[in-house]
Amino acid sequence: MPNPDYFEHYVVEDINLAETTFTNVRVPPNTNPIFDGGVTFNGILFIEIPNLVYFSGHVNLNGIIVGNGDVTDDTGTNWIYFPGTVSSSPVSMLPEEFGDLREETGTFLMAPGFSVTFGGNFETINGAVAANGIEFIGNAGGTIDGSVLNYADTAMDLSVSNDLFFNRYADTEMPAGFE
Q1: Total domain count for the chain?
Q2: Is residue 174 domain-resident?
Q3: Per-residue confidence band for 37, with pLDDT thresholds at 50, 70 and 90
Q4: Residue 9 buriedness (CB in 10 A; 0-12 / 13-18 / 19+)
Q5: pLDDT of 172
Q6: How far apart are the C-alpha atoms of 125 and 110, rounded to whole Å?
Q7: How many Cβ atoms sit within 10 Å of the Cβ of residue 170?
Q8: 38-73 as b/e, with b when 16 or more CB fall inside 10 Å?
Q9: Is it true that the peptide bond before 83 is cis, omega within 30 degrees of 0?
Q10: Alpha-carbon span 78 to 144, nearest angstrom
Q11: Does 18 map to a domain?
C-alpha cells in the first residue's frame, strides 16, 4: 500500500509559482497549478488534495511526485496531467545535500486518489507509477523503470502512438513509500 505521508518530512516550503526550479515543495490544496514548459523539480513534489496539476510543456523531474489522496478515491476530481515531454532522474542522482532522500529509490510517482495522464514522450521514467486511474495516450512513449499500479476500478488506458517499454529489472526491493 502507498504511504504518501512517508515523504512529507522532506518538504521544506510551499511552492512559489513564480519560480521555474523547485526543491522539496508542497502544493497546498486548491492551488491547481499550471506549469509552463521548462520547469525543474528536485527532490519531493508533494501535492495535497484537492488539486488539478497541469504540466503544459517539458518538465524535468529529479525526484518523486507524491499526492496525498485516498487509495479508494476513483472520482477523478484530483489529477496530474503531462501533455508534454517528461525527463526524469532517480533520487539517487541528486547532490549530496539531499542526504537521506537519495536513498528513497524505486518511486517516480505515488499519487493515490489522483488520476494521472501521460500524453507526451519520455525517455525513461525512473521508478514505479501508482495512482487511481492511469492513462498513457497520444505521443506518450518511452521506458518505465518500475511497476505501474492502478488503484482504480477501471483499466489502465494505453492508447499511444509510440512504444511503451516496461522494465522491472530493478524491482527486487519495495519502492520507497510503499508498505
Answers
A1: 1
A2: no
A3: confident
A4: exposed
A5: 66
A6: 13
A7: 14
A8: ebbbbbbbbbbbbbbbbbeebbbbbbbbbbbbebeb
A9: no
A10: 23
A11: yes
pLDDT of residue 135: 96
Contact 64, 44 (CB under 8 A): yes
Count CB neighbours of 164 within 10 A.
16
171 lies in some domain:
no
Per the document, the length of the chain is 179
Min mean pLDDT across 95-109, 133-147, 156-170 is at 156-170
- The rounded radius of gyration (Å) of the Cα atoms in the chain is 15
In a domain, 64, yes or no: yes
> Is the Cβ–Cβ distance between 125 and 142 less than 8 Å?
yes
In terms of residue numbers, what domain contains 71?
4-166
